[in-house]
UniProtKB/TrEMBL annotation:
This is Bacterial regulatory proteins, tetR family. Pfam families: TetR_C_7, TetR_N. The lineage of its organism: Bacteria, Pseudomonadati, Pseudomonadota, Alphaproteobacteria, Rhodobacterales. The keyword Endoplasmic reticulum does not apply. One of its GO terms (molecular function) is transcription cis-regulatory region binding. Keywords: DNA-binding. InterPro entries: Homeodomain-like_sf, HTH-type_TetR-like_transc_reg, HTH_TetR, TetR_C_Proteobacteria. It comes from the Bacteria. Residues 30-49 bind DNA. The keyword Protease does not apply. Residues 7-67 form the HTH tetR-type domain.
Amino acid sequence: MRADAKAERETQIASAAYALMAEKGFHGLSMLAVAKRAKASNETLYRWYGDKLGLFRALIERNADRVADALDAALAERPDPRAALQILGPALLDMLLSPQAIALNRAAAADASNSLGQVLAESGRGRVFPRIAALFDDLIAAELLHGPAAPAASLWVDLLVGDWQIRCATGAMPVPDAAARRARAEHAEAVLFLVKGG
């Protein structure tokens, strides 16, 4: 299968999986139901993802790739590190508060085995956070922040996300609009530089 055809098929499978999760929850989702909804073969799903947990991991990785790509693009343009942080903040919130991320977090929260939460941590934060920490290395090297990088990056993520993701996942609040997400990113940056500034 050509790479572009495979990418299109993966998008169809992801869309089908998210639709079924919205209807039935993760535990009500089956590989066969996803295959039927995506008009793919069950064999293809098992060959590509292994099992339902593998499909869940692939969905998380697709979502995490969006932020990784945004950060990579910001760094490739070579703005100063603070400008890159200003690009990353709204992009990270967009990813974490997307319908896909909310669905994945709901599934992980409802999983009594905690295996989905582990996959979410490994394939989501585990892939994105090292890039964020690398950006914070640059901010510290430019003497814009005091180090070390990992705790400063964690503080920024905490300021940025707060309890928004869990409140959206539980339905306690609607997903904030783009203007509110931008304002939240600006506030997190301002507080970070007030607390950790060079």
